[in-house]
Amino acid sequence: MLEAVLLASQLWAAEEEITWDKIVVTPYRYGETLSKTASSVSVITAGEIRSSNGQSVVDMLRPVPGVIVRDWYGNGSTATVDMGGFGEQAALNVLVLVDGRRINNVDLSGVDWNQIPLDQVERIEVIRGGSAAVLYGDNASSGVINIITKKGSGKPKANLGIEYGSYDMNKQKLSIGGGINDKLSYWLSGGHEATHGYRNNSFVKDSDFASKLEYSFNDNLSAYFNSGFHASSYGMPASITQSIIDQHGRRYAKYSDDYTNNKDYYFMLGPKIGFQNFGDLEIDLNFRRKDTDSYFLSSGLDTQGGKIETIGITPKYTLSSSIINHDNKLITGIDFYRSLYSSKTFYFDKTVSTNLNGSLNQYTNINKNSLGSYLQDEFSIFKKLTFVSGYRYDFARYTFGYHDNDLHDYGKSPDQDDKVKLDMQTFNAGLVYTYNNDSNIFFNVSKSFRFPEVDEFTYLDQNWQKQLDTGLKPQSSINYQVGLRHKLSDRIKGSLSLFRMNTRNEIYLNAKDFLSWGSWVGKNENYNNTVHEGLEASVDTKLNDLIVLFGNYTFTNAYFDNDQYSGNKIPLVPRHKGSVGLRLFLPKNITFNITGNYVGKRYFLNDQANAYSQLNGYMVADTNLSWHRKDLDITFSINNLFNKKYSEYAGVLVDDGSKFYYPSPERNFSLKAEYKF
Prior knowledge:
This protein is mainly beta.
């Protein structure tokens, strides 16, 4: 076997010289080569997605430097992505885009990662640090994840895929794409997936449809229309304590019948107008509606129905020109969003109904209007030295309406009808020096921010009545980042970056108590200051056309500063995180992959005082074997190869100090087949 491998390696190496592709990314809301980007960026390519074990986008993010994934149930339905060490509030500090469209919700629910099926994704760009906040605004506190979906071109092509695996997992997908006369580009995709899940009542059922259409009228005018629909249902088994694990096992569900239904759809369209030597104008118009119904049949909470409607208008203008023989790129634009948030609770009574036709107990209506304007310029001081600077101003207005019918006789909460106005200014400045081909150093300083989510203003007081805190402040960070991207040879490249974020008024939930039916009593408050600092290092090696190796390491020191917890570590943030991977291209079109992800110890959720022992670290290895022949691909995968028992998410109850866990899946398998025609 070894002789065959060496022979194949020599033959393939003789046929083709190994080179690294030039990567074009969109951190500036337009295409730019990675070598001219003044921030730390990682790109997950289409090839890496195809060869991975990933079931979802969050699975693809686990090996990325500086990224921590916490999946409550191991099925993607409730997962958060952390960059920079924000712990419990991570989901609210990372902005997620799909083809430039914001998919962060305006409430505390964060991002529904399952609305982005992995088979629709062409590549994923991860921009770490706050430098992108000038162009993207709210929620881009610690970074931006931009997901680029597939598009059609050329002759019509269809892709049919099926997948089966552990926990009765099954997927079916079909996509069709192509183009006509270089004028029309079309791509349509539909799919269904389901699993019973690792834990009891951790099932997921998803159905998706997406389309991308683009038509070029001429060289200076084109228009596009994108749409998507996502329907899902998933169980909520809740957390379990160690005593429950000892008695019933890790797969036990505290609540065996609680579940949620989601329906989410969007439309996005607009023209792209070129003015030849006078720049380009793009006007994006988008609409999104998300409906969420949650049924707490086991825990006994009121049934909840929620709706979010968002309208966005985001024109932008870009101009590439020369100033005294120096390249210059300017971008300016406006981001306007109007979000209507509605939440209703219906009196829970098992003997009456489990749907949303029961007696209305409470309702909340919150409108959020936000308007941001930005200007950024990229100027080539010299051929190898580029300076980037920008400024942004954002304004947000919230209108609140809340009413309580007090059907539980707890004491009527006061009606809330009020308004809040907030504003924020941001900036960035960066330098990139390319000292060698595909090698550069960069530095940037920036300010990023996030406004409070619509439901962070409300809270339960000690009498279990809902109140409104209009004094909650927006959060801001001053960010510093310096880095090196170095191409050692045609076979080896690496990167190193240092970062520091000084965050003021970081928003967090100060949990005073935990009620027997599973609700928090407490309120969202502002810390005085927190610090998030560390380093990220990575190396990629192509030993030859047969063997590819990669590895990365992240050190994060996230702590409280200048308040009651001064010097303490932020819960859920590990100091050490690393990934290693190996890919072998074997004879007979067989490829072998293995990836290991390590996450170190971290303090439990709610342990700001660092009074309890830390949650254990873990190392999880995933591997697969794939075979390719003409238009057929077959992949067999094993996740958690060594059957590690661990939890990505866990906390401590503030009233009695007991610890609760969300156990992650043990060893599991999948078999996937794709056919193109």
